[in-house]
From TrEMBL:
Pfam families for the chain: DXP_redisom_C, DXP_reductoisom, DXPR_C
Pathway: Isoprenoid biosynthesis; isopentenyl diphosphate biosynthesis via DXP pathway; isopentenyl diphosphate from 1-deoxy-D-xylulose 5-phosphate: step 1/6
Record-given protein name: 1-deoxy-D-xylulose 5-phosphate reductoisomerase
Binding site for NADPH: T15, G16, S17, I18, G41, R42, N43, N126, E128, G207
Enzyme class at the top of the EC tree: oxidoreductase
Protein residues bound to 1-deoxy-D-xylulose 5-phosphate: K127, S153, E154, S178, H201, S214, N219, K220, E223
Residues where Mn(2+) binds: D152, E154, E223
Reactions catalysed: 2-C-methyl-D-erythritol 4-phosphate + NADP(+) = 1-deoxy-D-xylulose 5-phosphate + NADPH + H(+)
1-deoxy-D-xylulose 5-phosphate reductoisomerase N-terminal domain: residues covered: 9-134
Amino acid sequence: GQLTPIRKVVVLGSTGSIGVSTLSLFEASGVEVDVLALTAGRNVEKLIEQALRWRPTVVVIEDEALLPRLRDSLQNTGIRTAAGASAIVEAAAMGADWVMSAIVGAAGLAPTLAAARTGAVIALANKESLVCAGPALLRIARAAGGSVIPVDSEHSAIFQVLQPACIHRVSRLILTASGGPFRTWTRDQMAVATPEQAVAHPNWSMGAKISVDSASMMNKGLEMIEASYLFDTPEERIEAVIHPQSVIHSLVEYVDGSTLAQLGPPDMRSPIACAFAWPDRLPWPAPRLDLAAYGQLTFEQPDQERFPSIGIAREAMRLGGGAPAAMNAANEVAVAAFLDRQIGFLDIAASVAGTLERMNSLGALMEADADPVESAMTTDASARRIAAEVVRQVQRHN
Ligand code: NAD
Ligand code: MG
C-alpha cells in the first residue's frame, strides 16, 4: 500500500550520489511525492534533467554563474529557478515534511539547520554537519518538533537495532568499515597513491570527497563522532571493525552480552528508504541479501599505523569543544588539496593532525561564542585558514 498522505519533500544535493539514489528510490518504489525543491552545487545539466522529470516548485544552483543556463532551460515550465547559498537555505525551509540532507561537507550545515527549524523530518546523509554542530542541530530539530534520521548506513543500522527503552544498557556501538581501496596497501604504496586510485571504492559508488575519506578511514573517524552525537555515547564505547564485504552495516552490544546487527546488500537506497518511511517500511523491489552467495563474512582490526585517522578522531572527541568541527574543516581542505594533486595521500591525515595541534596550542578549540552554531562556524572558518597554511607547508616540503 501507499504511504499516506503524499509527502512534500526537498532534496538538498539532488545531483550527487545520495541525491540521485533518493530520486531513484522514489521512482523504484512508485511512492507519491510532491517535490518542493531540488538543489545542486554546480552540476547544472543534471539539475535541469531532474527538474524536467520531477517538476519541483523551485530548483536552486549554488554557483550563481550557472543561473542563466538553468533559467533558459526551464523557461515556460513554471518551475522557479534561483542561485546562491542563501537560496539553498530558503529552499530547505520551504515547509517540506521530509528533507534529504545530501550536500557534501560543512556547506550542508546552514541548509540542514534551516530545515531542522521548520520541524521537518531530516534524512541526514551530510555527516559533516553533525560533526560540525551535532548537539545544536539535534536540539534545534527536536525543539521544532521534527527529527533527524540517519542515512549513513552504519548509523541507520544502529538506529534500526537500538531499542530506545534500553539505550542506557548499551555497552558498545561497533561501526563496520569496508577498509576502502587501500585496506591491504603498505604506507609506501599509499604515499604515492593517486586520486583515481583513492576514489575507486570496492563496494560503494560515492562522491569523490567521501571516497577519499573512506580510503584514509577518516570516514570512520567522522562516523564515530556522528555516532557519539546521534546516540549520545562516549568515545570509549564506540569501536570500528573492518568488514570488507559491507554486508553487516553495524552492531549494538548490550550489557548482557547480546549483540544486534543490521544486514543488507551495499545499496544506499535501503537506508534512504528506512529514513523515508520510519517507523513504517517502504515496499520497493530492493536487492535481496544472498548470504550463501557471499559464503563467508570476514573481520579485521583497523591498523592504527597505516590509518591514523581513527586515532585523530578519537583525540578530537576527547578534546571536545570545537575540535570535531576543526578536524572536519581541516580534512575538507586537505582532501581538496589531494584531489587537486597538491599533496600526497598520507599528507591528508598529517595535515589534519597538524591543524588540530596548532589550533589547540592557540587555544582556538574552545567554544568561542555563546551560540553553539556561531561557534562551530567560527571554528570551521579558522580551521580552514590554518589548514590551508599547513597544506602549503607540506607542499613546500614535498
Ligand atoms: P556528491 O559529491 O556525489 O554530491 C554532493 C551534492 O552536493 C551534489 O548535488 C553537489 O552538487 C552538491 N554540492 C556540493 N558542494 C556544494 C555546495 N558548496 N553548496 C551546495 N551544494 C553543494 O556526494 P555524496 O556521495 O552524494 O555525499 C553527500 C553526503 O552524504 C556527504 O556528506 C557524504 O559523506 C554523505 N554520505 C554519502 C554516502 C554515499 O554512498 N555516497 C554514504 C553515506 C554518507
Ligand atoms: Mg557510512
